[in-house]
Every structure is written in structure tokens, then in C-alpha cells.
Amino acid sequence: MQNVVSKLDAVIQKYHGKKGALIPLMQEVQDLEGYLSHNTMQYLSEQTNVPVAEIFGVATFYSMFRLKAQGRHVIRICKGTACHVSGANGILYSLRENLQLEPGEETTTDGNFTLVEVACLGCCSLAPVIMIDDQTFGTLTPEAIPSILDKFAFAGDTV
Ligand code: FES
Fold first, then answer.
1. pTM, entire model
2. What distance in Å separates the CA atoms of residue 36 and residue 22, rounded to the nearest whole number?
3. 38-94, pLDDT tens digit by residue?
4. Which of 77, 120, 136 to mutate for ligand 1's pocket (most ligand atoms within 8 Å of CB)?
5. Which fold has domain 73-150?
6. For residues 105 and 117, is the Cβ–Cβ distance under 8 A?
7. Is the CB of 139 inside a 6 Å radius of any atom of ligand 1?
């Protein structure tokens, strides 16, 4: 924790007194832990004298900011038109079933995957499409999902 605080302080110091620095500052802070926790936003507010409501407002307005921790792997499923008409709903159902996600849940209980729905991944000719981290998987069927997920299975911590 101390290590994170000292890194946080270093980032805050880097932007100290610079105009228009709130968004780049928040981006760098998010890079430290992968998301902006309530405690981190509170600390940022105390150290920068920017009201916490303003920081929270920026964090919720811009889609690049995340308020929840994400899994080790982020799965983006396209719900755009081309993917929708090519069976994206079946892919989504298969993903949620294989990941054992309850309604409303985005991250698996082992913290290995976070599932996010997006509007278009920019490769509509491959519909239906998902991306896992920076790898694209196209012309999918629901049956293909388990073997794809296996490639990203969490092997556990090694000693
Ligand atoms: S609609 Fe799915 S990639 Fe464009």
C-alpha cells in the first residue's frame, strides 16, 4: 500500500500547479491500479484541492475511466448492428454461461475475466466478434467460446 501511495504522490507532484492537468493526472493515477477507487479519488482531492465531486464527475463522464477493478483479461463483445444480426446475443449468452456470471456481474469471482459490451470493434466483416485483451476472435459460434476462454484460463499463482 505504501508503495502505491508513494507512486500516487509522485504522479500528483508531476502535475502540481499545471493548468488543465486533471484528466491526464487521473489517467496516470488510474494506470497505477487499473481503476479509480473511491479512496483514491478522495486522496486525489485532498492532495490537489480539487473537490471530490468534480473528480467523480470527470471519472463518470469520460468512458476511459473505470470505477471498478477489472479482471486480468478484458473481454469486449460487440453488440453493433453487424454483430447483432450475426448472432451476438448467442455469443453473449455463451460467454456469460461459461464465465458463470450472475445477472449484473461483469467480473468473474476469480478475477480472471471482465466482460464488457461495446458498440463496434471496427471489424464488422468478421461478425460476430469479440476481443480478449488485444486479440480478436471473429465469425464466432457459441460453441467456440469454451475453447477460446481456455486459452486465457488462470493457472493460479506460482511459487
Ligand atoms: S458491428 Fe461488430 S465489429 Fe462492427
1. 0.73
2. 13
3. 999 999 999 999 999 999 999 999 988 999 888 999 999 999 999 999 999 999 999
4. 120
5. Glutaredoxin (3.40.30)
6. no
7. no
